[in-house]
């Protein structure tokens, strides 16, 4: 019996140590955009870190959004499949349409201190079972009715890894306790 | 449940069963069968391609509606006898017909579609005439400010040269008056409560250099032209 419909969130941190090409593009381009946008908020160039700018200049929290404009093109290239969250065959398998972008930290003179995070929020998926301690058997979408009617649904087995959380849960009412 | 039934319910045919059993990771040696070698699978692709900032747009309308509007800005270099400055990066942003900007919520959730939070912002690089052009909709206004367009000019390396704004001519018959009376195009505020340039704390002391030239009509759209002088 399926457990319910859930939404998962994957937190992807991108910094100077990130290795994949996608990550490097996002790192480079968001840092470049950060350097451009920061000049609007700190026109006197008094501050070095994002934290200082955030604390001392009005409206600097707009920079999260403004810098995200450099990442959205790469996020679109993911074709609505969460990066890194893969099935047992190593392929991206979790559908997403929503994300949240934040600058964790940055520095106008030290690129190595630039760090951003993207939270990817999945579309609703039906949690069918947990296999072993780290594999989630699920079906895209809300399949509770189909499963209750013993219809066959396509499934995926996702490998659970750090930085993945279940952020919403809708219980399968047909569960008998 | 019998194993074969389980697999059947998972939709696994006997054809793909061997694949599952011998499932290999990407870094496993390439499997060989007989005289031919299987082609490697590629799970890392499709590889990302370098993507310009989503701000790089000629049309910045996105999902907004309103009276058609063209923005033409010429950048001149004070340090080079006011010659046209080629290769300068020009960012512009302005509010929609109702006075709202693209989402400034910072860390709220966004969609991949993005259009509902990403509008009326653009970036272009000046041509040999020092010009950039954008297609947009005529901006509305909000309490406390005269109608305006924000402009941020950088040199080719991205170093800021000037953050400024472009104001609009006003008075009866002006584009600002005509557009804001155009309920047919969705402008509902009229001019009641509008802050005129003389009272605007940005334009009050700089109307001679910051007010653009506007031509056109509500029916055919308007065009603003403006020259901005920077020290490059």
What does this structure look like?
The complex is a heterodimer of chains A (177) and B (232). With 177 residues, chain A is an alpha+beta fold. Chain A has 5 helices and 7 strands; from the N terminus they run βααααββββαββ. Chain A has helices spanning 21-41, 50-56, 62-68, 72-76, 144-148; strands spanning 4-15, 96-105, 115-122, 125-131, 135-140, 156-159, 164-171. In chain A, strands 1, 2, 3, 4, 5, 6 and 7 form a 7-stranded antiparallel β-sheet that branches. In chain A, α1 crosses α3. The radius of gyration of chain A is 20 Å and the shape is elongated. The model of chain A has no long low-confidence stretch (mean pLDDT 93). Chain B has helices at residues 3-9, 17-21, 175-180, 207-210, and strands at residues 32-33, 36-37, 68-77, 83-84, 89-93, 110-111, 121-125, 131-137, 148-154, 160-167, 213-217, 221-230. Chain B has 232 residues and is mostly beta strands. β2 (96-105) of chain A pairs antiparallel with β6 of chain B, so a sheet runs across the interface.
């Amino acid at each position: 019996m399926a457990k319910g419909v859930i939404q998962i969130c994957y937190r992807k941190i991108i910094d100077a140590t990130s290795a994949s090409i996608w990550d490097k593009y996002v790192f480079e381009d968001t840092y470049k955009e950060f350097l451009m946008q920061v000049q609007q908020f700190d026109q006197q160039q008094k501050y070095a870190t994002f934290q200082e700018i955030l604390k001392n200049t009005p409206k600097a929290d707009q920079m999260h959004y403004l810098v995200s404009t450099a990442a959205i093109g790469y996020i679109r290239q993911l074709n609505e499949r969460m990066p890194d969250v893969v099935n047992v065959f190593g392929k991206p398998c979790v559908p997403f349409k929503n994300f949240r972008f934040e600058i964790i930290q940055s520095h106008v003179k030290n690129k190595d201190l630039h760090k951003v995070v993207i939270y990817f929020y999945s579309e609703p998926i039906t949690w069918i079972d947990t296999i072993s301690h780290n594999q989630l058997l699920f079906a895209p979408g809300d399949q509770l009715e189909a499963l209750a009617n013993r219809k066959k649904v396509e499934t995926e087995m996702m490998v659970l890894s750090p930085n993945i959380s279940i952020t919403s849960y809708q219980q399968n009412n047909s569960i008998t306790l | 449940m019998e194993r074969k039934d389980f697999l059947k319910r998972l939709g696994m045919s006997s054809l793909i069963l061997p694949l599952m059993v011998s499932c290999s990771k990407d870094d496993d040696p390439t499997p060989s069968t007989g005289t031919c070698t299987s082609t490697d699978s590629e799970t890392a692709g499709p590889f990302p391609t370098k993507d310009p900032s989503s701000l790089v747009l000629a049309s910045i309308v996105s999902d907004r509606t309103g009276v058609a509007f063209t923005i033409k800005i010429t950048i001149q270099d004070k340090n080079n006898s006011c010659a046209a400055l080629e290769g300068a990066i020009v960012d512009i942003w302005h509010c929609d017909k109702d006075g709202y900007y693209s989402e400034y919520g910072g860390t709220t959730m966004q969609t991949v579609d993005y259009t509902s939070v990403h509008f009326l912002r653009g970036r272009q690089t000046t041509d040999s005439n020092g010009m950039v052009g954008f297609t947009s909709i005529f901006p509305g206004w909000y309490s406390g400010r005269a109608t305006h367009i924000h402009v941020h000019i950088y040199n080719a390396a991205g170093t800021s040269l000037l953050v400024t704004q472009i104001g609009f001519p006003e008075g009866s018959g002006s584009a600002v008056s005509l557009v804001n009376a155009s309920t047919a195009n969705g402008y509902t505020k009229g001019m009641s409560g509008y802050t005129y340039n003389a009272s605007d704390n940005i334009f009050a002391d700089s109307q001679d250099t910051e007010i653009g030239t506007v031509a056109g009509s509500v029916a055919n759209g308007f065009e603003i032209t403006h020259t901005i002088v920077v020290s490059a």
